[in-house]
Amino acid sequence: MLTSISAIIAGIIFLAMMYSTITSVKEKEKRAAIIFFSLGIILTIIFLLPNLCPYPLNEILGGAFSLLFFLIILISFFPFNRKLRTEGIVPREKIDERDTMFSRNILEPGSENYQAYYNKHPEKQPFDEAFRKNPGLLEKGTAFYDKNIFNAATANFDIIEANRAFVTGNIAETQEPQEARQTTEFIQNLVKKMGAHSVRITELNDYHLYSYRGRDHNYGKKVQNNHKYAIAFTVEMNHEFIRNAPYALAILESSRQYVRSGIIAIRIAQYIRRMGYDARAHIDGEYEVICPLVARDANLGEIGRMGLLMTPGLGPRVRIAVVTTSIPLVPNKRKENSSMIDFCTNCKKCAEACPSNAIPFDDRKEINGVLRWQINQEACFTYWTKVGTDCGRCISVCPYSHPNNSLHKIVRYGIKNSPLFRYAAVKMDDLFYGRKPKPLTRFIQK
User: Environment class of residue 16 by beta-carbon count within 10 Å: exposed (0-12), middle (13-18) or buried (19+)?
Assistant: First the structure.
């Protein structure tokens, strides 16, 4: 009897490992495919061994192997999460967009804004003068320059630039009566139909907003946004392209999804204005809000070690856009996903793989009233200006960034429910994919 159970388990293991092998081949993960196939053969043989032994040894071994198998399944997937301490999530002060690297990058040496900024922040000037000596993002002379890919990515950013005029617009004179729940459901369904991966609603809080704008066309403008709600959504970045990070294909995909998310946000904002309510799209280069904070509070994920939004299904392999509005909506209740924070605390894979050493290895610290990790944005951006891409290496190696198929959904389920599985999952990911996985390829021409 017990030998038969062991044989059935052997069959289950073999089928599961062969499925994992085929899935890995489709994902172009050669190392994982070889290990899954090898483990499938080895484990199948081990669980079939009791059938080759004489009685009663076969029953003893069959029982031991079966018990071991079910214990591993129970420990790995039974929900018994430890509770992490309650998080402080409300920053004490707003972020000034002028302090971000994108804003500092556009400061012209000798200009009035340049002088004013570095008079106020002299400690930042040495770092900024260093990156200004490099060729720059998407420029010739960078380490990963590719004329076709870089120009294709720049064309995407040109499209975003051309759509800036549509982030705001005229509001219809006649206001259509709205029922909050129905409107919320309609908008969420519409956003998904337009191509978003996930969408949620939150009340717009003061700390979601920048204090001052920092881009060339609105530099130093105080942010004033009285909208009540924020619609946050994510779009998926292609796994294969992101696996090329930090090479050129990664920024091509990144820019493509900035366009995609931006167009969706603009269309939703325009729809709301036509219904007679104010709305503003927040897209690349036109942010009044800190999108990861809004998305987190809308229950789309948590802020991980790399400083990006970590979503349950795609990890950081997303781009975010936001629409703020006065139309009546029903906000989603935030549910803290402590399993993701716990996983990030132990994993540290992004920190080890970061080519600029910009991601911290230590535990979270309270910064501006929030327990969080703080990346070195100067080191990160300086690397961008050397290689010409927006890197994305941290996104590429993150275990949460694997495709959202059955294989990885099972792993994510275990991570969500068991601290022991979270520990094991880091080791398994290192085994199957490597602690520092190599990029898939460098150029599209290969």
Answer: middle
